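For practice. Any example?
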Amino acid sequence: MKRSSKIYTAIIFVFLFAPIAILLLFSFNEAKSLSVFSGFSLDWYRELISDRSTLESVKNTLILAAASTVISTVMGTAAALGMYRLRREWYKALMNTVTNIPMVNPDIITGISMMLVFVFVGRLFSASTSLNFWTMLIAHVTFCLPYVIFQVLPKLQQMDGNLLEAAQDLGCTPFRAFFKVTLPEILPGVITGAIMAFTLSLDDFVISYFTSGNDFQTLPIRIYGMTKKTVTPKMYALATIIFFVTLALLLLNNVVDNEEGRKLRDRKKQKRQAA
């Protein structure tokens, strides 16, 4: 039984990581072939650096991801704080359900519906173009918000509410008490939510495709346009770089979670010793 489970796990890992391994390998291939590795070379990375259109789309993607991450993290933290302070259970359950909708709703439905809203508003105000950077930013903030909320909310629920009351009793204003007491307690959740928002925005194609204009093109949209002709191996090089950036963010997320888990175990241990 143990042997079969190990074989099954190995097969799953092969299916998951074999395509990525092939992509990494052939990004260093000297030729364009995807079946024969003719030799190690960095030519495709050099071509990537000289491709201004691709680098411009990378810059657009990073700007969009950074902006949507900052906005969704601030708004998501504030929304989680408001939901945490709700007293009525039915209202809190309703807000949790509403927050879940962008997460479970298919991307294509979200993209089409937001495109229709943006076009309607643009025509209502007689705008020259209905879709641009700002419509993409609003769309990305919309689908990143729930992930930030559901990362911050559990940290608020784990926090000792007496700390906030004690800070206010000692003379802190609610605003100052938030930054002195609440924020340090929920900071791991805020960081995790920000990382998730950044990676989701960086990776998104469907919603971006429906809400983008002609003057702002992200990397996933550019790669999709290239598939209609030929995807050159320099895209393998770019995908390799993105993979390692995403891997670094994932490792950072795990480090933050492990550190938070360690602090939580230490607190429980101290409480047991005090009791």
Observations:
- The longest helix spans residues 234-274.
- The radius of gyration is 23 Å.
- The chain has eleven helices and no strands.
- The mean pLDDT is 83.
